[in-house]
Design goal:
The chain is an alpha/beta fold and 238 residues long. 41% of the residues lie in helices and 14% in strands. A 7-stranded parallel sheet has the order 3-2-1-4-5-6-7, sandwiched between helices. The mean pLDDT is 96. Bound molecules: NADP nicotinamide-adenine-dinucleotide phosphate.
């Protein structure tokens, strides 16, 4: 049996990843922030004991600790940890405007530090598995080399920090046979902007299928540095 854990599975890409993993016969711990979001409950009805829903706020140390204790009772190991949960924050304001620093710090706390909280708690379970793989859902917005935006401060800075974290964690895991992949999921039609992003060219299902195809069906090079790939397996510049 293969075991996976996905954060931020309330809806959007996280929910689609959970569904695709279940279709691939994984047992999935689906971590949900908002208990009022019932889409993942519908999957539970379909997949029964192959799926457990776990409450998790990655911005909160105590919540991560409670999640870890629960997950310890659910799975013997985690083959695939997908750190998917994230928030966008303001994407309009540029230099010279009134920036909301508390919000920027919150975005960094969720997207970069929150991912580290989860990984640090679950790395022992990942290292007990066969696959020993962590996928950090990053973004092209985390690429410093490719940066053309003037705003999106919280999001871009948090995803760049998330990428650095991927490199640091990869350096820890690789000596023990593990790996980290920083993954850009493409431009996906989700509600991350507060409304359905109809300008996106990908559905969550298409992105999730692509990501799992890259991570599970492709022979990826083993490298000293983590791979920074998109959902098609193409490399992104750091
Ligand atoms: N959509 C795109 O085009 C795109 C492009 C590049 C990268 N990405 C990345 O893809 C991932 C998924 O995003 P998405 O597009 O599917 O957006 P989304 O639908 O907003 O999904 C984000 C998920 O994270 C959850 N979440 C937010 N704060 C959390 C916290 N503190 N603790 C735990 N969970 C939390 C959200 O829960 P609630 O919504 O219930 O609060 C939601 O389930 C993110 O890492 C995002 O940065 C998306």
């Amino acid at each position: 049996m293969m075991y996976a854990l996905v954060t931020g599975s309330d809806h959007g890409l996280g929910l689609a990843l959970v569904k695709e993993l279940l279709e691939r016969n994984f047992f999935v711990a689906a971590c949900r922030l908002n208990t009022k979001e019932t889409l993942v409950d519908a999957l539970k009805e379909l997949y029964g004991n192959k799926l457990e829903i776990v409450d998790l706020d990655i911005s909160d140390y105590h919540s991560v600790k409670v999640m870890k204790d629960r997950v310890d009772t659910l799975v013997p190991h985690i083959d695939l940890l997908i750190n998917n949960a994230a928030i966008l924050g303001d994407i309009e304001k540029v230099l010279g405007e009134e920036l909301d620093y508390d919000e920027i710090l919150h975005v960094i706390n969720v997207n970069a530090v929150g991912t580290l909280r989860v990984t640090n708690a679950l790395a022992p379970l990942v290292l007990k598995s066969g696959l020993k793989t962590i996928v950090n859902i990053s973004s092209e917005a985390g690429s410093i080399q490719d940066c053309a935006r003037e705003g999106w401060f919280g999001y871009c800075m948090s995803k760049a920090a998330n990428n650095m974290q991927s490199a640091l964690v990869h350096n820890n895991l690789r000596k023990k046979g593990g790996r980290v992949i920083a993954m850009h999921p493409g431009h996906v039609a989700t509600f991350m902007r507060g409304h359905l992003d109809t300008t996106a060219q990908l559905s969550p299902t298409e992105s999730a299928k692509g990501i799992l195809n890259v991570v599970l069906d492709t022979v990826l090079p083993t490298e000293e540095r983590p791979l920074y790939l998109n959902y098609l397996g193409e490399r992104l510049p750091w």
